[in-house]
Write a structure and sequence with these properties.
This protein is α/β, with parallel strands linked by helices and 341 residues long. The protein has helices at residues 37-47, 57-66, 80-85, 118-125, 135-139, 161-167, 169-173, 198-208, 218-223, 245-251, 293-303, 306-310, 312-315, 322-339, and strands at residues 3-6, 18-20, 28-32, 50-54, 71-74, 91-101, 104-105, 115-117, 152-156, 192-196, 212-213, 216-217, 232-234, 279-286. The protein contains 14 helices and 14 strands. It has a 7-stranded mixed β-sheet. A 5-stranded mixed β-sheet has the order 1-10-9-11-7. Strands 8-13 form a two-stranded parallel sheet. The longest helix has 18 residues, at 322-339.
Amino acid sequence: MNRTIRIAAAAVVGAGTLVGAASALGASTGSGATFPAIAYTKWCQDSGLCSYTAKGSGAGITDLTKGTVNWAGSDAPLDAGELAAIGGNIKYSPTLLGAVTIPVNIPGVATNKMNLDGQVLEGIFDSSITTWNDKKIAAINKGVKLPANPITVCVRADSSGTSFVFSRCPGKTNASSPDKGGSKTPNWTAPTLVKQPGNPGVANCVASMPNSIGYVDSGDAIRAGLQPKIVKMGKKGGPYVGPSTSAIVKAGEVPAGTIKPDLTVDFSASPNVGAYPIVATAWVLIVPGRAANGEARKSVKYFLSPGAQKVLPSLGFAPLPAPLRTLANKQLSASWRRSNR
């Protein structure tokens, strides 16, 4: 029988909290993804141009659709229903790259020396692998003494771009698994689930619960003290790579001509040597034609500035690749001109 454990949302530090220069005259307002929240918070505070409420990509898209914010943060493109609800037109401004890390909390095991792949992750989150000493985990972790303890799986309770990026991982990194795409609200079927709102909530779940596993951005993993518990990821058979800044940068090294015109880039499962396989792009979403786009444009221009991009490694993220940042600036300017005619 599937048993779902729910932890109170009050335990999640910062979830749903308005941050930044909220009272600043003319400041833009944004809401959405918790994945880039620490960066957006800092950028808003440093510039005084904006405020940001971290509540999940889906909730931010809903706010943007209702017009209660000037822009939304998301790690996933809009689905057909979301796009129709918002009027059929949206601009994606990429702002940063980040890793979806896999922290594991197994008492007595040096989990930062462990390896996992897409096939194993799929089994853990979809119930075919339920204990840590399962032969599929043991096969790619020779010499690691794994306990027979049941696995507790920490997942997002809200509509999440991080869930979207993570849920498409098995199909993109495991040739034997069909690519089912991603979902902001996956139907996980692991026997023991702990559902938490926001990336900080998932990080707290893994940090506090023995024999657990989860998926969370690098920044929140580091702030939860999980850096020593993050496993290396790879395709079946390796090589296995950790989510360092350089490994995220490697994933983003693509020719400018291969970047889609709408900038909905996907750098996951990169064939580049040394690239981390589960990389997310964070976007600011803007609806062309809205009256307050001037404030939103100023905020995003700052996010794309060299000074703002320079701080990202200290927060657990990676700057945008130069070709993508150039295209983002060009698209932002073009969108701005059209939206103010």
